[in-house]
């Protein structure tokens, strides 16, 4: 399989590859004129291309016909999540990309110990590209800007499933028939959990409290399990007994 590189969507057959991708081609992979590469545009399309010229900051390639190819699950999953620390954040972004999450939105909560710095979102988006190159994904996972839990729960999500991960009082997430699947949205809290006020805000906006078992999961683990659950068309949480 040819090496994969991300480019902005284009209808041109002659493609200019710049910045980090060009440096990866020229300095890391040491590819040159005549070498074959695979390009993907982050919107679902890919093509084989032949390198025509290589400069340290710009590579020109001739693209073959673009084709649409998706490896994503059928269901759409959005994760609103507090952010874990340092390398755990990169790991979470990579794995959510590999698992097929549609969108990841950093969630500001009262107990969050990590808030994105100005360059954090840009780094997260770059991690998405790198993970997509590796896993064969052609549609980039969207990384949204940070939002508060109030902003998240008040989004217009008509006919979509809405869950807040609450390990202490939530209901166990249960599967339903595949035909019942709908786009899924999950709120994942920080290490200290959601505050009572945040849980009340979610409940007042019809977000159902759920958990994925008896263990208390780390932020990145909960986000990944939620993504898998949504992709596998799991829903239908029932109110906890008694």
Quick description:
This protein has 242 residues and is α/β, with parallel strands linked by helices.
Shape: elongated
SSE pattern? EEHEEEEEHEHEEHEEEHEH
Uncertain stretches:
234-242
Largest sheet: 8 strands, parallel
CATH homologous superfamily assignment of the largest domain: SPOUT methyltransferase, trefoil knot domain
| Total helical segments | 6
Indicate the percent of residues in helices. 25-40%
What is the CATH topology assignment of the largest domain? Answer: Alpha/beta knot
Give the helix/strand layout.
Layout: E1 3-6, E2 14-18, H1 19-28, E3 36-40, E4 45-54, E5 58-63, E6 67-68, E7 77-81, H2 86-99, E8 103-108, H3 120-135, E9 142-143, E10 147-148, H4 149-153, E11 161-165, E12 171-172, E13 184-188, H5 196-204, E14 208-211, H6 219-231
Parallel strand pairs: 1-3, 7-8, 7-13, 8-9, 8-10, 11-13, 11-14, 12-14
Antiparallel strand pairs: 2-5, 3-4, 4-5, 4-6
Helix pairs in contact: 2-3, 2-6
Verbal overview:
- This protein is an alpha/beta fold and 242 residues long.
- It has 2 domains: 3-68, Beta Barrel (Ribosomal Protein L25, Chain P), CATH 2.40.240; 77-231, SPOUT methyltransferase, trefoil knot domain (Alpha/beta knot).
- Helix content is 28%, strand content 26%.
- It is built from 6 helices and 14 strands.
- The strands form 2 sheets. Strands 7, 8, 9, 10, 11, 12, 13 and 14 form an 8-stranded parallel beta sheet that branches. Strands 1, 2, 3, 4, 5 and 6 form a 6-stranded mixed beta sheet that branches.
- β7 (77-81), α2 (86-99) and β8 (103-108) form a beta-alpha-beta unit.
- α2 (86-99) crosses α3 (120-135) and α2 (86-99) packs parallel to α6.
- It is elongated, with a radius of gyration of 20 Å.
- The model is unreliable at 234-242 (pLDDT under 50).
